[in-house]
Amino acid sequence: RNPGTKIQVALGKQNLQKKEDHEQIFDAVQIILHGKYKEKDGVLYNDIALLKLQPVDGHCAVETKYVKIACLPDFFLPVGTSCFISGWGETETG
Predict the structure, then answer these.
(1) What gap in Å lies between CA 70 and CA 93, rounded to an integer?
(2) Which residues share a beta bridge with 16?
(3) Residue 7's CB: how many other CB atoms inside 10 A?
C-alpha cells in the first residue's frame, strides 16, 4: 500500500455509491498486515489485516441492526486453537 493513501472503513453500508442513514465511516489509523502476506503472479497469499480505527465521538462502532461488533479478546489463545473470522471476498483464485 502507498503510505500516503488514506483508508476509510465503511460499516453498515450496502451501496458504496450513495450515503446511507445507517452507515458508520471511520479512518484507519493503523494497518497490521499478516506477517506472511505476499503477492505472486497475481495471487494474494495471507491477504488479511487488522485495522485500527480512529474513534468518532469516543467510539469506533455502534452496534446496530446493520453493524455487529467483533471484539478482540484480552487474553492469548494457545497456538493451534481453532477460531472463526468474518468478512467477504474471493475464496478461490481464477
Answers:
(1) 27
(2) none
(3) 13
pLDDT at 80: 92
| H helix or E strand, kind and range, residue 32 | strand 24-33
Residue with cell 478482540: 72
pLDDT in tens, 29-82: 999 999 999 999 988 888 888 899 999 998 889 999 999 887 777 888 899 998
The identity of residue 91, as a single letter, is T
Q: Where do the domains of the chain lie?
A: 1-94
Give Dmax over CA atoms of the chain in angstroms: 43
How far is C-alpha 15 from the chain's CA centre? 17
8: Cβ–Cβ under 8 A, 6 or more apart, which residues? 25, 26, 27, 28
Name the strand (E) or helix (H) holding 9: strand 8-11
Q: Which CATH superfamily is domain 1-94 in?
A: Trypsin-like serine proteases (2.40.10.10)
